[in-house]
Design a protein that fits this description.
Keywords: Cytoplasm, Methyltransferase, rRNA processing, S-adenosyl-L-methionine, Transferase. By secondary structure, this protein is α/β, with parallel strands linked by helices. The protein is built from ten helices and nine strands.
Length: 324
């Protein structure tokens, strides 16, 4: 019998620990609750049913336990359970961007302050950034229950202690106003904006995803309404105008805080949106704009980052705030 060679996901960041095939025996040792969901697929490989929300949540819990020593993690029913490999790529991609102002060295430790717009109940970006680099996060959301759960995750895990401050955004029309305080300085902001433009659009996306997974929900077999395998509340999945409107709003509202953030950033899932994003950034006078391609789950996405600081100002920022 020939030995299976390790599968390397070359589209993931070199420091992303999820580049290899899932090692299910090792993951089950780290999180025994995963075991009932693992079975051989049609190709004879161990896998889980990615159309099953419970299986996806169990896999996430095992990945967090095995790779990040996060043992206590859970979500309220129906909240977004994000695919971890793509989310980790965002963190490592931004680490590389910071390194460009620091003689190629990624800055580590609590001196690096990050603002997560829409932290969600899962708190995925603060968890990954805290464990990988020791960064300190502020997480904002318009959902009190989401913030409560994110806070509890950090409180229950020693490896995450003191890594997250939660701030409630009372006005959903504002992204930064009322959130960034006068004394705040952030190395970067990050955001995974709502992708869909309406609840109907989000439901259609769910059906397309389930169709690609080959489930009966997408084949008209009279099953109950489909449940997205990664879950998600309405504010996590859609907003009026969809991704493009949200990102353009974020761009226009970033300028008043141009001296308080080294970099602003956001995921842009739809490549067709990039020309409008660039136009919006030109209108507000962004000095530097970076488009950083990366993996996001099973598709290619990109981070668009912008700064109002010159390269010289960025290097002065780094020298004054980072030791390494």
């Amino acid at each position: 019998m020939s030995e299976k060679l390790p599968v390397i996901k070359n589209n993931l960041h070199p420091r992303n620990p999820h580049r290899g095939r899932y090692d299910f025996p090792a993951l089950i040792i780290s999180s025994p609750d995963l075991a009932p969901f693992v079975a051989l697929n049609a190709y004879g490989d161990e896998s889980v049913d990615f159309a099953d929300p419970a299986a996806v949540k169990a896999l996430n819990r095992a990945l967090l336990s095995h790779f990040y020593a996060i043992k206590e993690w859970g979500l309220p029913e129906g909240y977004l359970c994000p695919p971890i490999p793509g989310r980790a790529d965002y963190i490592h991609t931004m680490a590389d961007l910071l390194a460009t102002s620091n003689q190629g060295v990624v800055p580590r430790g609590a001196a690096v302050q990050v603002l997560d717009i829409g932290v969600g109940a899962n708190a995925i970006y603060p968890m990954l950034g805290k464990v990988a680099y020791g960064w300190q996060f502020v997480g904002s959301d318009t959902d009190d229950l989401a913030l409560d759960n994110a806070y509890e995750i950090f409180e229950r895990n020693e490896v995450l202690k003191d890594g997250l401050i939660c701030r409630y955004q009372a006005d959903a029309a504002n992204i930064f106003e009322g959130l960034i305080q006068p004394a705040d300085l952030f190395e970067f902001t990050l955001c995974n904006p709502p992708f869909h433009s309406s609840a109907a659009d989000a439901a259609g996306g769910t059906r397309r995803k389930l169709r690609s997974l080959g489930t009966g929900h997408a084949k008209g077999k009279g099953l109950p309404p489909p449940v997205l395998n990664f879950g998600g509340q309405s504010n996590e999945l859609w907003c009026e105008g969809g991704e493009m409107r949200f990102v353009r709003t974020m761009i226009s509202q970033s300028r008043p805080f141009k001296q308080q953030c080294l970099w602003f950033s956001t995921l842009v899932s739809k490549q067709d949106n990039l020309p409008l994003v660039y136009q919006a950034l030109e209108r507000i006078g962004a000095i530097q704009v970076k488009t950083l391609d990366m993996a996001q789950g099973n598709k290619i996405s990109r981070v668009v980052a912008w700064s109002f600081l010159t390269e010289a100002e960025q290097k002065r920022w780094a020298k004054s705030r980072w030791r390494s």
